[in-house]
Design brief:
This protein is an all-alpha fold. It has 12 helices and 2 strands. The chain starts with a helix and ends with a helix.
């Protein structure tokens, strides 16, 4: 809170605003998950966040273990598809959370590098209009990053709670459909192996609560990692957009007095672009393993959820409606998650390549430098070299990957969706042939 108040005062003064102001909500989420170093928490809050993190991760691990055991002793293809999809989600959520905790120093280094890029971007155009444009762009990051964090948190937790509520809704529908009906077989939200009698009421309640906590835990891990990664990509997209704006507007009036700062502005653009490239390399090294797991998990989920939905017998009853609705939510969340990553990766690639066009829009070759003859040729030569440097750097496409096989792009998203649909059709054919 103190940090936000200081940043608000700074903004009213018209001074440069620190990066923390724009990603304050993200840092708060990472602090609660024990990923970002805790500075503003009291000892009680720090202890609660540490204890909560340990409990969530431990229960998630136990739930995942029980599901893996259930897979090993299961021979039913339909039930296998159900378990594998859930295991993928629980496993990826656990991996993301533990990976971020283990790599928390790298996360700090990534944010520090982004601060450097943020500082260099603010030096590109010191005019009042230039500062206003950049702040408006960064407000976009602040606004939509907060919206993404809140919406994605609500969506993930709602999906888990809705999935966990299905067994209770089914039991209620069975009991209300017949006064003499006794619900003997109790169902849990997630299929797993437990050395307990799940039909016993107290065992059932304990396991049910454990599964709710174990289901929320991977959702929180997914929210933390996705929020961090998407926010970083948003910030880089905005910084690329701003560099393109500066390059296209520089010297647009072509007056000698307006051209005197051309050399320094181009140097700042080159330095900023180099720093962004370095930042993206660090981000790629950090995110490569997890994004590879993400692409594999999304492919598995989309494939198996589509297969499971195709084998459900359509009927106007509570069981079919709840099952189809849960699978639809599951499918849409998995598809949206991968789409967001691929969308921003494609935007970064496009904006990076656009710099080659932007640097020539300023018509630097027609500039009247207004200098003495002995300096004019040297200055034009320096400007030409800077333009050439930007052009060469921008011609190398910026590619974000998910491990050694997946390039994050909208084309990859389309291929994964098509592959998942094809595999689900193949599984449906095998299932129908075996029946």
């Amino acid at each position: 809170m103190h940090r936000e108040i200081e940043d608000d005062k700074t903004r009213r003064r018209g001074d440069a605003i620190s990066l923390e102001y724009y990603i304050a909500h993200l840092l708060l989420v990472l602090e609660c998950a024990r990923i970002w170093p805790v500075k503003s928490f009291s000892r009680l809050k720090a202890s609660l966040s540490t204890g909560g993190t340990i409990i969530f991760i431990t229960i998630n691990s136990l739930l995942l273990l029980s599901e893996i055991v259930a897979v090993m002793i299961n021979n039913d293809l339909t039930l296998f598809a159900n378990i594998i999809g859930v295991i993928s989600m629980h496993g990826v959520g656990l991996v993301k959370w533990c990976y971020c905790i283990r790599k928390n120093r790298e996360i700090v280094d990534i944010v520090t590098k982004l601060k450097r890029c943020h500082t260099l971007c603010q030096r590109l155009d010191n005019s009042e209009e230039g500062c206003r444009i950049y702040r408006d762009k960064m407000e976009y990051v602040r606004k939509y990053s907060n919206i993404f964090i809140q919406w994605w948190t609500i969506t993930c937790i709602y999906g888990v709670l809705h999935w966990c509520a299905n067994p209770l809704l089914l039991e209620w529908s069975f009991q209300t459909s017949s006064f003499n009906h006794t619900f003997k077989q109790r169902n849990l939200p997630f299929v797993g192996w437990y050395p307990l009698n799940t039909n016993d009421f107290y065992n059932y309640v304990c396991l049910y609560l454990v599964q709710i906590i174990g289901g929320i835990s991977p959702a929180l891990g997914i929210v933390c990692y996705d929020s961090f990664y998407v926010t970083m990509l948003m910030a880089i997209c905005v910084q690329f957009q701003y560099i393109n704006i500066v390059l296209t507007k520089i010297n647009s009036d072509n007056k000698p007095e307006a051209m005197s700062n051309l050399d320094s502005t181009l140097k700042n653009c080159v330095n900023c672009h180099v720093e962004i490239i370095r930042f993206l390399k660090i981000l790629q090294n950090f995110s490569g393993p997890t994004m590879f797991v993400q692409c594999i998990e999304t492919l598995i989920i989309l494939c198996l959820v589509s297969f499971e939905a195709s084998v459900i017998k359509i009927a106007i009853d509570m069981v079919s409606v709840l099952k189809l609705w849960a699978l639809l939510e599951y499918f849409l969340c998995a598809a949206f998650q991968l789409y967001v990553f691929c969308f921003f990766a494609t935007q970064i690639k496009h904006l990076g390549l656009q710099m080659t066009h932007s640097v020539y829009c300023c018509e630097w070759e027609l500039v009247s430098f207004g200098k003495r003859e002995q300096f004019r040729k040297q200055l034009k030569r320096d400007v030409g070299r800077l333009v050439q440097t930007i052009t060469i750097q921008a011609q190398r496409p910026i590619v974000l990957t998910g491990g050694p096989f997946y390039v994050l792009s909208l084309e990859t998203f389309r291929v994964i969706m098509s592959m998942a649909m094809s595999n689900s059709v193949m599984l449906r054919t095998i299932h129908d042939r075996d029946e």
